[in-house]
Design a protein that fits this description.
- The protein is an alpha/beta fold and about 210 residues long.
- The protein is built from 8 helices and 10 strands.
- The longest helix is centred in the N-terminal third of the chain and has 20 residues.
- The radius of gyration is 17 Å and the shape is globular.
């Protein structure tokens, strides 16, 4: 990595971390994905049940695989073989787990978490329910403000996810948002967390690498 770019990104993350701290969030700044994985495993040590929001960031870190032999109860609603009823049950159980780990579609320099969900299980768990919530965010997801965060999600994140999941949406074909009326539309629930939720402990892990979409 270009040294100047690395330090520019580090400065960007430090500014974001300062804003998140002012907004009441716990924050940890990590330089590499290896450090991020080690930190997450350390934080997960005391948890008996761990839920996961759908996240390419966590997939790239190999977190679920790293925890597979831990003996902990892993609540993964995206695992193969689940029926719709079983999948919903896992999502409900995620809301009452010891630790919920996910990512955010975007984080602004002013310390706001911006997300768009199709079902809402991820953003619900981020705001209330689990005893501890860890949100892992790569530097590529930092945006200047809420407007640019929403634009990032619509133009980059949603099309990539729709394509990955095999959904028949216009954005999956064109790579551009068209505010569609598709039955498989994934942009359904938009949330902006401006301050740390009152009844939840939400901790943000900022990583100085590109992770996820």
């Amino acid at each position: 990595m270009d040294v100047n770019l690395h330090w520019h990104n580090h400065t960007l993350l430090e500014q974001t971390a300062t804003s998140l701290t002012k907004n009441g969030f716990g924050v940890t700044l990590l330089e590499t994905r290896a450090e991020a994985l080690a930190f997450l495993l350390q934080q997960a040590a005391a948890a008996e049940s761990i839920g996961f929001g759908g996240s390419m960031t966590l997939a790239e870190l190999g977190l679920i695989e790293a925890l597979a032999a831990s003996g902990k109860r892993l609540l993964v609603h995206g695992q193969a073989g689940l029926s719709p009823v079983e999948r919903r049950q896992v999502m409900q159980e995620q809301l009452d787990c010891d630790l919920f780990i996910t990512s955010s579609n975007a984080v602004t320099l002013k310390g706001h978490l911006v997300n768009i969900d199709a079902t809402g299980n991820r953003v619900c768990a981020m705001a209330f329910g689990p005893r501890e919530v860890l949100v892992v965010v790569g530097v590529n997801k930092v945006t200047s403000d809420i407007e640019s965060a929403l634009r990032r999600i619509k133009e980059r994140v949603a099309p990539a996810n729709a394509r990955r999941l095999g959904f028949a949406t216009p954005c999956a074909e064109t790579g551009r948002c068209s505010d569609c009326q598709s039955p498989q539309r994934i942009c359904r629930i938009t949330t902006i967390i401006e301050r740390a939720p009152r009844a939840s402990h939400l901790h943000i892990c900022l990583v100085n690498e590109h992770l996820g979409y």
